[in-house]
Design goal:
The chain is mainly alpha-helical. Helix content is about 75%, strand content about 0%. The chain is globular and about 60 Å long. The two termini are about 30 Å apart.
Length: about 210
């Protein structure tokens, strides 16, 4: 279909990759625990929107620039690491100082961002990760017929498949995680979530800063 092959294997591969812990899954988890169902779904939507950018980049050759140019890769990598570090710093400040002083919202002691803000953060954490772009560039061609004359269409088709399946996985993940907020009225949970999120995103920022193109 559209110059592709082994779509069943592709679906299994995408499932395994979606379930592998990383920046996207971590961001969705933290957003859901802090903001509930709406925040989790906004995070999933933002991440999926970021994957649209990576799909277009792979389809039209922009991702090749990241693979070929160490300078370009470095700029995007450091921008992504800096953004993750900025998120970590914000969570750390809330956890150490302001997390428990924010007035409860709908019975929750955990301060929440708007859905639009969570969407924006999810989008940026995905788009500013050059490893995602290289992943699309490395994975999708493996399921494209080498002799097809419609490689761009094949890239777009597989990218769309990845986005839809990935979004469905994240939605299911959000639905599973949301009940864990049952004890959200405890003020200590606000600080715990912010401190845990700060440590998690600081670690992910460091990993991205140390990442290489290979």
């Amino acid at each position: 279909m559209f110059g592709t092959h082994d779509l069943a294997l592709f679906a299994v591969t995408v499932l395994v990759l979606n379930a592998t812990p990383g920046v996207d899954l971590a961001f969705t988890l933290v957003s859901t625990l802090k903001g509930g169902l709406s925040a989790g779904l906004a995070a999933a939507a933002g991440i999926s929107a970021g994957c649209v950018v990576h799909t277009l980049a792979a389809a039209f050759g922009l991702a090749t620039l990241l693979a070929a140019s160490s300078a370009t890769f470095g700029v995007v990598k450091w921008a992504g690491a800096a953004y993750l570090a900025w998120l970590a710093l914000g969570m750390l400040r809330q956890g150490l100082g302001g997390g428990g002083r924010v007035p409860p919202l709908e019975g929750s002691a955990v301060p929440r961002l708007s859905a639009a803000e969570v969407f924006r953060q999810g989008f940026l954490t995905n788009v500013l990760n050059p490893k995602v772009a290289l992943f699309f560039l490395a994975l999708l061609p493996q399921f494209i017929d080498i002799d097809t004359s419609h490689k761009t269409t094949a890239f777009l088709f597989l990218g769309a498949w990845f986005i839809v399946q990935g979004f469905a996985f994240l939605v299911a993940f959000v639905l599973l995680v949301t009940p864990l907020r049952s004890s959200r009225r405890r003020p200590e949970l606000a600080r715990l979530l912010n401190l845990a999120g700060a440590g998690l995103f600081a670690t992910l920022a460091a990993r991205l800063a140390l990442a290489e193109r290979g």
